[in-house]
Amino acid sequence: MVNHMITSMTGFSSHRSSNEGYSWGWEMRGVNAKGLDVRLRVPDWIEGLEQALKGQVSKAVGRGSVTLNLRVQRLLGEDRQVLKEDRLQEVLASIGVIEAAAEKAGVALAPTSGAEILNTRGVMDTAEIVEDIEALAKELLADFAPVLSAFNDMRRAEGQALYAVMTRQIDEIEKLCAKAAEAVEARREKTAETLKANLARVLEAVEADPDRIAQELALLAVKADVTEELDRLAAHIAAARDLLAGAGPVGRKLDFLMQEFNREANTLCSKSGSAELTRIGLDLKVVIDQMREQVQNVE
Prior knowledge:
The chain is of the alpha+beta class. Helices cover 62% and strands 14% of the residues.
């Protein structure tokens, strides 16, 4: 089995988490690009987080347009309310003074309920939030690891699919090149016969220098020869297989190789000299174009 490491530039991952004071959510996306473009949207009140995250992404991703979004929200609920003991003692003492004065004056007062006391200003208050931003940043960076891992897992899975498709396309290119070689052999015999017949007619019709005619015929034969094109296509096929079986970012090399594939296919069509070879050349161009579309997604 071929050991390949092709990776796609397309990927996605998301993740949500929280601690006692915060909740947050990650979303990471990647699409194809000529180089590496990392764009981050993270809270600016967490110092050093953006630079650290960008460094992790740059180490793990070789090429592509990557967008990373992080939203952090503070958690404020009932559990953040606390009883202020000092204020409570002040309120109770005040109530005692009022009740004693009322009793002395003969004034009857309704009993004071606990709820009323709790609703007195300052008895219950929101707990003071002591924020450790540095600790939060460390926790977020640790929580980002599975996000990045899931993102790369998807890119590798997409890469496996690309590998399968491009391998089939290279096989098809190789088959078409073999057919082209057969068509060239069939064309060679017919071309020789045609040249001989045309030479005989020319010599009968006009007086011409046989050596000059032979030179012209040889030049025509050289212009019609596609052996070099087929040899270069064979070399490109071998190079493409090596790249797909290798490791690391190979997308740019494959893209350049597809241009060379297309150049040879165009030359093959222009020098075909037969309907069969032209048809094979056009089929070759179609497959090459299809493969080039796939290559655009390779890292």
